[in-house]
Amino acid sequence: MANHHLIMETPYASISKIMQRITLTYTQYFNKKYGKVGHLFQGRYKAFLCERDEYLLSLVRYIHLNPVRANLVKEPHDYPWSSHRDYLTGKEDLVDTKRVLQCFSEKVFQAKRQYKDFINEALGEGKNESLYKAIGQQILGSDEFMKEVEKKVVRLDRPIRKPSLQEIVKAVKEVTGISKEEIVSRGKSKEVVLAREVLVGVSREYEYKLMDLQPTIKRDLSVLSRLSKESDHGHARKAVEEVIRNLNARMQAPGLFLCPMRYALCSMRSC
């Protein structure tokens, strides 16, 4: 599939560190196995902090019905690359099936049957947009849950939004030593060109469009397109990743993903 979803429970560890390890190690494995090079996933993952149980079952159903909605299979159990079959059999390998099945019944046989019925009830339904109508598209839960999260973070608006272009420019300067004035100038030194490439690359990772960058960098779209391509290689790519790490550390208040017994839904796209 073009997009990939993962639900994880993380009482203590950082989501960003977990996802970085997963994407890095799997990309290395995939490239080695198939003789490929470069990035496997497009851009940074998106994460939703979810209230347990109330939203957990809806998210599990949403993920397991994705291949059906994408017209890849007619039935969810026909898709071999999801955990749906594990829930039907009660198998435990990479996925903890008990947590979900116990939401239906303490008896394994009844739990598996009710789980199957729960999934099949939504066959034929379209995408459930209500799951994504969340604050800043990053928190899913009741009003009480929202208040609980708000108590655990200093500023609720900080970790649930993407950085502004001004913040990205500042972060690029910290890594490259090149100021906004130098980036906008007609300077053509290697350091200045690299900073432009990094700025475009980081902005793209946060889903800014090239036209969004024109007022900041003051370059034609053709030039920005070339800078975007160059940002995927060599020193530029390393600098892009460093800037993103720095920004993510600032944008994600640790408490947001350290709520005990809560779930995070992570979504990634393949290149």
Task: Put the structure in a nutshell.
With 271 residues, the chain is an alpha+beta fold.
Any overview of this molecule?
The protein is an alpha+beta fold. The chain folds into two domains: 3-11 and 40-159 and 257-270, no CATH class; 165-250, Orthogonal Bundle (Chromosomal Replication Initiator Protein Dnaa, Chain: A). The chain contains twelve helices and four strands. The chain has helices at 15-34, 56-69, 84-89, 97-101, 108-121, 143-152, 165-176, 180-184, 190-205, 210-217, 221-230, 234-251, and strands at 3-9, 41-50, 139-140, 263-270. A four-stranded mixed β-sheet has the order 1-4-2-3. It is elongated.
Question: Which spans have pLDDT < 50 for at least 5 consecutive residues?
Answer: 154-160, 253-262
**Helix and strand pattern:** EHEHHHHEHHHHHHHE
Q: What is the overall pLDDT average? A: 80
Q: Quick one: overall form?
A: elongated
The total domain count is 2
Please give the radius of gyration in angstroms.
21 Å
What is the terminal-to-terminal distance? 11 Å
Helical residues, percent? 40-55%
Largest sheet geometry = 4 strands, mixed
Write down the oligomeric state: single chain
Q: Please, how many helices?
A: 12
Class from secondary-structure proportions = alpha+beta
Spatial order of strands in the largest sheet: 1-4-2-3
The beta-strand count equals 4
